């Protein structure tokens, strides 16, 4: 009988692991366990009434969800249990720490300390407006504004997603100590995020008219923080897994890079470590 590999988490890391597992010469049975009703994790696009597309998460590389989803096997577990030869965890470290059995308490203790910060994402669209500058966007130093992390000029990179008739799209990212203080005081509100974002767009880009469309999303604990001692934590986790011979491999943004590219690579590495073969360039994705 073939092996069964469970992949926990259907974000880009888990999807990449599934993809590479399923491409093995003798692929194991792959079971993807995702806790939410959709795949993609933080990667999410929504369409506005005029057809414009708004990215709620990353936009640095284009989502390839349909291609990934076609190769995936979705299993609804309900209350039942599932036997597997190996598990790839591609969920946040803190979420995994809650699932581990008592015997793995030392590992859970390490994973629990890998925290993440929240970001409020405000997508704005302006009819008949023009940007004073071109580029991917700009970052704002916390000394200048403790709340605005930066503004992405979505229309510059992807003008074809501006809708019909086209409207200028920008995304304001809010976070930092400002957001943490608001959260601590229980003062988070969509109206406040929208107001803060519109003010930033007005003062920093001259977009003074009210937006024609606005989306506000608070992504809680979405960006893992690699604080001092992070690599020692990873080493401790690896040593525990090796010493206990646990059939568990860690992948995802919590460990060795939060960028989409890092997450895809972590899923690839996890798949190859389970399969027992060396990672090699994928001829379909790496062009000379
Ligand atoms: C607003 C924002 C903008 C970003 N911009 C960029 C960018 O421009 N470029 C870039 O490279 N990166 C960017 N990033 C970072 C990148 O998008 C993320 O680090 C990456 O998508 C994380 O992927 P992941 O699969 O590791 O984790 P996630 O996307 O968090 O996926 C984990 C999945 O596990 C599921 N899950 C959690 N707990 C359980 C459980 N107990 N059981 C089952 N399932 C569970 C979740 O529902 C989720 O689907 C951005 C991130 C954010 C939030």
Automatic annotation (TrEMBL):
Keywords: FAD, Flavoprotein. The keyword Flavoprotein applies. Coiled coil: none annotated. It comes from Tupaia chinensis. One of its GO terms (molecular function) is oxygen-dependent protoporphyrinogen oxidase activity. This is Protoporphyrinogen oxidase. GO terms for cellular component: mitochondrial inner membrane. Residues 79-272 form the Amine oxidase domain. It comes from the Eukaryota. Pfam families: Amino_oxidase, NAD_binding_8. PANTHER family: PROTOPORPHYRINOGEN OXIDASE. GO terms for biological process: heme biosynthetic process.
């Amino acid at each position: 009988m073939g092996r069964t590999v469970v992949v926990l988490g259907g974000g880009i890391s888990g999807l990449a692991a599934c993809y590479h597992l399923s491409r093995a010469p003798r692929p194991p049975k792959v079971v993807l366990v995702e806790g939410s009703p959709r795949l993609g994790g933080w990667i999410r696009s929504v369409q506005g009434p005029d057809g414009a597309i708004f990215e709620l998460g990353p936009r640095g590389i284009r989502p390839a969800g349909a291609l990934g989803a076609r190769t995936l096997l979705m299993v609804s577990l309900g209350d039942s249990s599932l036997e597997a030869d190996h598990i790839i965890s591609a969920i946040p470290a803190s979420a995994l720490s809650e699932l581990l059995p008592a015997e793995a308490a030392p590992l859970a203790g390490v994973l629990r300390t890998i925290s993440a910060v929240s970001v409020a994402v405000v997508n704005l669209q302006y009819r008949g407006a023009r940007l004073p500058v071109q580029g991917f966007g700009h970052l704002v130093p916390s000394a200048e504004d403790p709340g605005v992390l930066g503004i992405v000029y979505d229309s510059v990179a992807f003008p074809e997603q501006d809708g019909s008739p086209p409207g200028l799209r920008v995304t304001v990212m809010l976070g930092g100590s400002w957001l943490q203080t608001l959260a601590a005081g229980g003062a988070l509100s969509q109206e406040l995020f929208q107001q803060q974002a519109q003010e930033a767009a007005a003062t920093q880009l001259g977009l003074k008219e009210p937006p024609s469309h606005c989306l506000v999303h608070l992504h809680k604990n979405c960006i893992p923080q690699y604080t001092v001692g992070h690599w020692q934590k990873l080493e401790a986790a690896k040593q525990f897994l090796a010493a206990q011979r646990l059939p568990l491999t860690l992948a995802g943004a919590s460990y060795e890079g939060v960028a989409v590219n890092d997450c895809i690579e972590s899923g690839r590495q996890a798949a190859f470590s389970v399969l027992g073969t060396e990672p090699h360039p994928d001829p379909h994705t790496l062009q000379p």
